[in-house]
Amino acid sequence: MRPNDRLADQIRPIKMTRHYTAYAEGSVLVEFGNTKVLCNATVEENVPRWLKGQGKGWVTAEYGMLPRSTHSRMRREASSGKQGGRTLEIQRLIARSLRAVVDLEAMGEMMITVDCDVIQADGGTRTASISGASVAMADAFETLVKSGKLKHNPMKGHVAAVSVGILGQDILCDLEYVEDSAADTDMNVVMTEDGRMIEVQGTAEGEPFSRQELNVLLDVAEKGIADIVKAQKLALEN
Amino acid sequence: MRPNDRLADQIRPIKMTRHYTAYAEGSVLVEFGNTKVLCNATVEENVPRWLKGQGKGWVTAEYGMLPRSTHSRMRREASSGKQGGRTLEIQRLIARSLRAVVDLEAMGEMMITVDCDVIQADGGTRTASISGASVAMADAFETLVKSGKLKHNPMKGHVAAVSVGILGQDILCDLEYVEDSAADTDMNVVMTEDGRMIEVQGTAEGEPFSRQELNVLLDVAEKGIADIVKAQKLALEN
Amino acid sequence: MRPNDRLADQIRPIKMTRHYTAYAEGSVLVEFGNTKVLCNATVEENVPRWLKGQGKGWVTAEYGMLPRSTHSRMRREASSGKQGGRTLEIQRLIARSLRAVVDLEAMGEMMITVDCDVIQADGGTRTASISGASVAMADAFETLVKSGKLKHNPMKGHVAAVSVGILGQDILCDLEYVEDSAADTDMNVVMTEDGRMIEVQGTAEGEPFSRQELNVLLDVAEKGIADIVKAQKLALEN
Amino acid sequence: MRPNDRLADQIRPIKMTRHYTAYAEGSVLVEFGNTKVLCNATVEENVPRWLKGQGKGWVTAEYGMLPRSTHSRMRREASSGKQGGRTLEIQRLIARSLRAVVDLEAMGEMMITVDCDVIQADGGTRTASISGASVAMADAFETLVKSGKLKHNPMKGHVAAVSVGILGQDILCDLEYVEDSAADTDMNVVMTEDGRMIEVQGTAEGEPFSRQELNVLLDVAEKGIADIVKAQKLALEN
Amino acid sequence: MRPNDRLADQIRPIKMTRHYTAYAEGSVLVEFGNTKVLCNATVEENVPRWLKGQGKGWVTAEYGMLPRSTHSRMRREASSGKQGGRTLEIQRLIARSLRAVVDLEAMGEMMITVDCDVIQADGGTRTASISGASVAMADAFETLVKSGKLKHNPMKGHVAAVSVGILGQDILCDLEYVEDSAADTDMNVVMTEDGRMIEVQGTAEGEPFSRQELNVLLDVAEKGIADIVKAQKLALEN
Amino acid sequence: MRPNDRLADQIRPIKMTRHYTAYAEGSVLVEFGNTKVLCNATVEENVPRWLKGQGKGWVTAEYGMLPRSTHSRMRREASSGKQGGRTLEIQRLIARSLRAVVDLEAMGEMMITVDCDVIQADGGTRTASISGASVAMADAFETLVKSGKLKHNPMKGHVAAVSVGILGQDILCDLEYVEDSAADTDMNVVMTEDGRMIEVQGTAEGEPFSRQELNVLLDVAEKGIADIVKAQKLALEN
Predict the structure, then answer these.
(1) pTM check: above 0.80
(2) CB atoms < 10 A from the CB of A80, how many?
(3) CATH number of the CATH domain containing F53
């Protein structure tokens, strides 16, 4: 039995609070159960140097964890003098996922940076970041449309992500920390709102996994992502 | 006239939300108007190497700003590879202020680290950090008393802080960003709950200031700090 | 038509030169066509500090590219002062893949570090690194068995990896650089020699991919990996 | 009784040696008793990038301690790879203090950097740095006036600084190291030559201090600074 | 008796493999016995910022050791975050040596960077690097001549280097690792092909050395370098 | 004609001021004409970790230049975050030179660190550093002998150094800056007081140099070093 009597393929309660902070062009506090990530989207009217003069835009992301977002305190990356490998890996994943649903040509020479800062970590912070960042980015683009700087919102649809895993005999959706740390296989799946895949990253922490298990993991992920997309759309309607 | 019709010696509305996050031994979201700082206190049952074997405890602090806590995005310090001079200066100030109200001998060989992370910045983040950290630290010490690891709470009282400044002809308490950036003189005052001074840091950004002006600044600070101490006590009673 | 008339599901010619350097306990130059990676395995008779006293061993990996392994010169990471995100991501992947086929308990308190240094890069350097490192690690373990420091080789079997991708309408195995840089989807698959999966990392660079495409990608990867495992076994027999 | 029979409100013997080194536009070795700081002012005919095109000048400062300026050797900051928080705090203070007495508009697009390097440290290095740097800066501006690059010296007057403190029952001026390390309260005061305040930084290391004590501290500081300004003027007359 | 029955003034067998990698404009694997260094020369059609607009070219070099090029594994410099003093010293020496035989004016505003990466280290890696880099640079210049970007090869001749040393009573040429680590005096000599000196760097590790010993060291070095120049010319003829 | 009518083989006026600062166990301000270097020797009663338990001592050195020791201001290395290659090269040279005249076994497990900080640079700072550091180290060892921590001074004699060079047709001793920057060949020679060589580092900046020129360079260096040794002995007699 999962914590809080969750079913194997059931995601945690999702809450998306838009306009959580006052200055960012898009600001969403996303909660998956006890995992809480603040996603702030910033618009800048220029692009990185290597992209200048091509008429295209860019979307990037940064990720960080507050030192005491976790059960025991982690060292602050600003103090240790560099971002760790895990942090760099996650922020590259978030950025790729966001760019996959944006028409960069249609953006013009603008840049959106989405900062995903983990306030509280109970598993699935990278997938929550992607799911929340998609909404924050949508708000940022709407700001640009309202101010006349863009004619249309260049997003092709939402992007959402979920973690799935194999824990003993069970294939579970949206693992929380106690499940994640005990799982044999952990997989992060990022999809467009129409159910196509942007990223699939599966890792066998213990036993290798089979094609058949992979298929069930993806079935479960598809269902979970469909629920997350619903939550994204609901949040943007309010 | 100040924004929101504030009087010259009036502080902004204060809100202190305890237990804001789930894992820290003390966790307070402190708000002074639009300035919001999350203060998480962590207890560790050891001390820095240079203090080992002396039977004394230690209190330290770290400070950071989320990249988009500000009107325009700041570069993430973890990404630029070091904490800037302003950050180091502020976290040293917070730590000294907290230690001033703790009996370190009575703590035994324990350490408390208070992380002050600015969620939204509208002026006065360092003084809000001190005022909120005092409450988070109090909660952390209570945790240790309840678990039997300490017999008594080693805090000698609260510590609170406020910024005051000279803007044109006016001497103002608890400056918000638009006031702070236009002020001629900016002063941060840290006091114990019984009204004695722990730190006084006044800087003339424009014209130098006189002894008489300094006296009015301190009068105004004393009044503001008395109000903050009331808010701290109220928060801890709930 | 692919370069050198390769079939869509055909891997490049593989060459594995053991004992390529003289001092490492295992040293393999692995070549996949024009991609050449030197994999040196080092044995140390201690473990990282966090693992001490548990009676277990550890396997780790580092990855680097010579500055002119690529078409245009890349900046030397030692000179720029840090390893980039891509490097950290790849060396974490290599290390996880190697650990997945080793019985760490059976190793005792020993550590193997495999350095994968790219001499020439023509696509697929991370998968070539994994495939070559498996052989270098096998040689290192044999050294320990021969010297009596281990009773049995603690490897459970080989690990091999290949990249697959979607380029236009085609699903290709073992992409070389010109294919890789034009592909819509790029997937790295790491498997045990018995065909179970250790890592699956698929990324849509252009269009998202479907479940059906994912299935063909994995079919192609399985076939390619079977050929690589044959090459690994052949190399170790000589 | 203080060392060398100093009175409570008496500063140490001051010595200011101008033209101490040969190449800097202003070069002053300032001595307060055993504290010796070399202040070298450099003129550059450009400004930091963020100030370009505004027709204004800039004054900045850097601070360092020779490793064996202190009783026991300190680690060289160049070797440890960064300037510590204390160093950054001090050099920011020196720079603000110097800018407070310069008409930046009247400078035109020029920059003065004053390097304050501590040759021997016996307390009060930051205040000695400010007091000496004011003279070195004056010499540098005179160089510019003599060469015709500036019409008038843009300094509005001298800036001088002193430390004061509470040691037991006594309120002392210009603390040397043995006094400073035992003091309950330490305050650095920076004033213009006409007696107005630029910076006031008081810290209770032990017991908090009262308004009344603060007033006596400032009285003592005013008197000390008046003596330092006399020494500055005398040095420049020679 | 030296290893492999070498005579005191005899260099190790030299092998120079040109075009060792495919992309560099010059690529030479140089072997002195068991010492193997890969020298890759890169042409870039611009110069460092400080040289722009002067119509001159530049030649620079970087040096690195693969972590397991040595008997026991060295820490990877990219991972430790900086190049050590020895590395910086060596790459400055290589670069100076190469520039000494190039007419920088005749190059025009081009830059050549030679990366010397040690594959296997058995003593004399810096001198092998210089000797191999000279050939790689020659190939790079030939590429520029063939493509019409330069009219003539601006090299004035070859540069070659050898280490010599005093081991007990013997003065030896081209020391290998076991000799080098036991030597009292170690000297690196860099010469032009016509026998004039570019660099002489002699260090007494144990006993100081006399003028007479210095003279014999240089005699032996001259002879060794003449043999190396022959090998360079032979390699370029093939 | 050389500046100040110096003869070709004549060194500049030397001044060695012992006890220049108050806290270091040895403190010498050494001046060669306008070149001024402060050499502070620190005694510590422990050794680096890699040497512990061997009963031997260690001597090391650090080198730095004050930012405005030079004609135009150099960037402070503490601020740029690392010591440059030139700095590292020089401090390694100083340390090797000092160790060459110390019986490390006789020192016991003690360490001497000599900090050489350049106050004013007019050529020859590294050789002045060595010559002054030898005297500072002698004073530090005398301190240990006087306090009974060592029975005998473990120095085998003095070490001194000088730069020599070829400028046009002239071979000059102890080059000052204007000579050094115009010289074709620059050579630093480090010798024991009995005239044997510890280091010889000659570099052709322009034309390569011949064996005959090298011999004259060394003749001139021997003479200059004999004069420096006299100055060292004289300083220690006072």
Answers:
(1) yes
(2) 12
(3) 3.30.230.70
